[in-house]
Design goal:
By secondary structure, the protein is of the alpha/beta class. The chain is built from 12 helices and 18 strands. The structure holds flavin-adenine dinucleotide. Flavin-adenine dinucleotide binds next to helix 1, strand 3, helix 9 and helix 10.
């Protein structure tokens, strides 16, 4: 099957991981990205062992060691007192338990490493300024059309074009992403702008009524990434990177322990953004003929378990493995859906439960055995490089 022509729409996390993995298997995938330049938003990303296994399988071991931070310890703090209620191991013990590290990384660093890998393998693999608009297929080939007038044909088309996927709309009709009632404020703060000792433990979730505040270190410990999740009744603004103000975040976190405000106040101008957290209705199928979906296009989920990108990256590796080992495209796409549908629906459901748990403000949340994490749910025990498919 490694002569099959594979077109991937979207050079985001899952699209590039799929491209790298397929290249390692001997395929020559083509990636079509709507942006005119490659890049990612300025924000951090958690890569738990399940994602690390997938990225190592895709050939990113050195890049992870170079750009990823392994925080050693993480914790949960009380929103009002700041008291450390739960302490969690995130260092060598996890490596021993799961066979892969837990990393925190700047999204742009991971994305640049992925793009460099894909282009080093095949300098013609990524096509920019190609916004997917439509497609048609017969029994053996699929043709994709792009806003720039370009048309390409392939044996398989993979929609890796995120939460507002055009490929999904072309397959199953226009269903809009649903605003989940959560908005995310995202900030990057240089550590030298903060008082010593404030970033302890190095990775920390603070939770309280209707809000949570997660912060961790990236870029060799020089930068603090934070994601502040609050609840809203409605949302008018479109886009992933709407500038936000320090005052706006401080208003949301009035009454919280002082460190939260100290970190938010230190955010440099131009380093604070907000966006609406959206998910999608669960699809009963991801594939029609020669076209399938992966990542947020198939199953966007709430960010509370820090698993959306990890699950998208898992999809990419499993889909590549299915294409490598199946006797036909039909068999590969069927095998892929069977391997992924239940797991992705389950993680999406658990992410919704985690949201309610973190924002409940109830005291039992701070008991270790009641605190929901991707680790305690067993999400990290999945190894996409070796799991049976
Ligand atoms: C606040 C917040 C925090 C998060 N934190 C984490 C975390 O810590 N860990 C984690 O695992 N996940 C996290 N996530 C989730 C994660 O960011 C996403 O699940 C992940 O990026 C999805 O990857 P993807 O490849 O499906 O889509 P994306 O990474 O969104 O990539 C889609 C790509 O497709 C392109 N595209 C879109 N439309 C078209 C088109 N018509 N034609 C061509 N190209 C197109 C886009 O430009 C983009 O490059 C978080 C999400 C949020 C909201």
């Amino acid at each position: 099957m490694n002569k099959a022509e594979i077109a991937i729409v979207g050079a985001g996390m899952s699209g590039l991981v799929a491209a790298c993995t397929l290249q390692r298997m001997g395929f020559r995938p083509r990636v079509y990205e709507k942006s005119a330049a490659l890049g990612e938003v300025g924000a951090g990303l958690t890569l738990a062992p399940n994602a690390t296994h997938a990225l190592q399988f895709a050939g990113l071991t050195d890049a992870l060691a170079m750009h990823g931070m392994s925080p050693g310890r993480a914790g949960v703090r009380h929103w009002r007192t700041g008291k450390l209620m739960i302490s969690l191991e995130r260092g060598d013990q996890l490596l021993e338990q799961f066979g892969a590290r837990y990393y925190q990384i700047h999204r742009a660093d991971l994305h640049a490493a992925l793009a460099a890998k894909v282009l080093a393998n095949d300098s013609a693999a990524i096509h920019l300024d190609c916004e997917f608009t439509a497609m048609r297929q017969d029994g053996s080939r699929v043709e994709a059309q792009f806003a720039n007038g370009e048309r390409v044909t392939a044996d398989v088309l993979i929609g890796a074009d995120g939460v507002r996927s055009g490929v999904r709309a072309a397959l199953f009709g226009q269903d809009q992403p649903r605003f989940t009632g959560y908005i995310a404020f995202r900030g990057l703060v240089p550590c030298d702008a903060l008082p010593t000792g404030i970033i302890e433990p190095p990775s920390c979730l603070s939770t309280g009524p209707d809000r949570s505040f997660t912060r961790y270190l990236i870029r060799g410990g020089r930068v603090v990434n934070y994601v502040a999740l609050a609840q809203r009744d409605g949302w008018q603004e479109e886009g992933w990177s709407i500038p936000a103000t320090v005052d706006e975040v401080l208003r949301e976190y009035h009454g919280w322990y002082d460190d939260v405000a100290t970190i938010v106040r230190a955010t440099p101008v131009g380093s604070l953004f907000k966006w609406a957290v959206c998910d999608r209705a669960t699809l009963p199928a991801w594939t029609q003929g020669r076209v399938t979906l992966m990542g947020d296009a198939a199953h966007a989920m709430l960010p509370f378990l820090g698993s959306g990108a990890a699950i998208a990256i898992e999809d990419a590796v499993i889909l590549a493995r299915c294409l490598e080992c199946s006797e036909s495209i039909d068999a590969a796409l069927q095998r892929y859906f069977l391997a992924r549908h239940e797991r992705t629906a389950w993680v999406a459901q658990k992410s919704r439960e985690a949201a309610r748990n973190y924002h409940s403000g109830r005291s039992e949340h701070y008991q270790r055995d009641k605190h929901i994490t991707a680790e305690s749910l067993g999400i990290w025990a999945y190894n996409p490089a070796t799991v049976s498919i």
